[in-house]
Every structure is written in C-alpha cells, then in structure tokens.
Design a protein that fits this description.
GO biological process, one term: negative regulation of DNA-templated transcription
Largest sheet: none
InterPro entries: Repressor_TetR_C, Tet_transcr_reg_TetR-rel_C_sf
Order of helices and strands: HHHHH
Keywords: Transcription, Transcription regulation
Helix content: 55-70%
Number of strands: 0
Pfam families: TetR_C_1
Protein name: TetR/AcrR family transcriptional regulator
Distance between the termini: 44 Å
Length: about 130
C-alpha cells in the first residue's frame, strides 16, 4: 500500500513528477496549473488503488469477486432504499446496473474516471492556448 506523507521528494517521486511535467511541456499552462493537473490525476490514481485494495480486503473469505459483491450490494439496496425518500438512488439500485455481468469492470471504471479528468485537463490546456 502506498501512503504518501508529503510531496514527491525521493528519486522515484521526482522521476514520476518530472515525467508529468515533461508531458505538459508543450502546453501554455503555468507551473501552478501543471502541478495541479499532476496532483489531481495522481490523487485519482492513488484513490482508485486504495479503494480497490480496501474492497478486496472486505471480500476476503466471502468467495465473491468484485462483480458478485456489487450485485449483492445492488440487490440489498434495491430492497432497503425508500423510493419516496431517495427516488434517484432507488431507481439506480432497481435498474440492474449492478447485476453481475460475469466480468470485472474495474479497469473500465478506472479508465472512465481517468478520461473524465483528462478531458478537464484538456479544457484547461485549450483555455491557456486561447488568445
């Protein structure tokens, strides 16, 4: 498990940070925006990894993979969530999204979130390029 205790300061951390800065070198983003973009992407990656580890620990001994755990959660919530009090959550849980498809969608879910973040970075880059 990775538990950052501060900004990157060792050789590996600086190598990673420098790689991010190099990626954004051709943009007109100022240093603060570049650091912000690196930190938000880094935070997302770290958070996703920590969540995946935590969920895996929570499933230990159950015999369930993530897809099965999501199915069980969705079914339980469909029974428990009051549609009058939580209409949108009730619609989500009764809509079948969390039914077990037989495949682990963790990588797809991660990629979707990362794409959303990178789209936001692209908007910032485009705004910095505008006259």
């Amino acid at each position: 498990e990775v538990q950052p205790s501060g900004p990157p300061n060792g050789p590996n951390g600086i190598d990673w940070f420098d790689a991010g800065l190099r990626t954004m070198r051709p943009t007109r983003l100022d240093w603060g925006a570049k650091v912000g973009a690196i930190m938000i992407v880094s935070g997302y990656v770290l958070s996703a990894a920590q969540l995946a580890q935590s969920l895996a620990r929570g499933r230990e001994g159950t015999g369930m993979d993530q897809a099965a755990a999501e199915r069980e959660y969705g079914r339980a919530m469909a029974r428990l969530v009051d549609p009058e009090r939580f209409p949108d959550a009730a619609a989500l849980f009764s809509g079948g999204l969390l039914e077990d498809t037989g495949e682990d969608t963790g990588e797809q879910d991660f990629a979707f979130g990362l794409d959303l973040l990178l789209d936001g970075v692209a908007v910032a880059v485009a705004a910095a390029e505008a006259p």
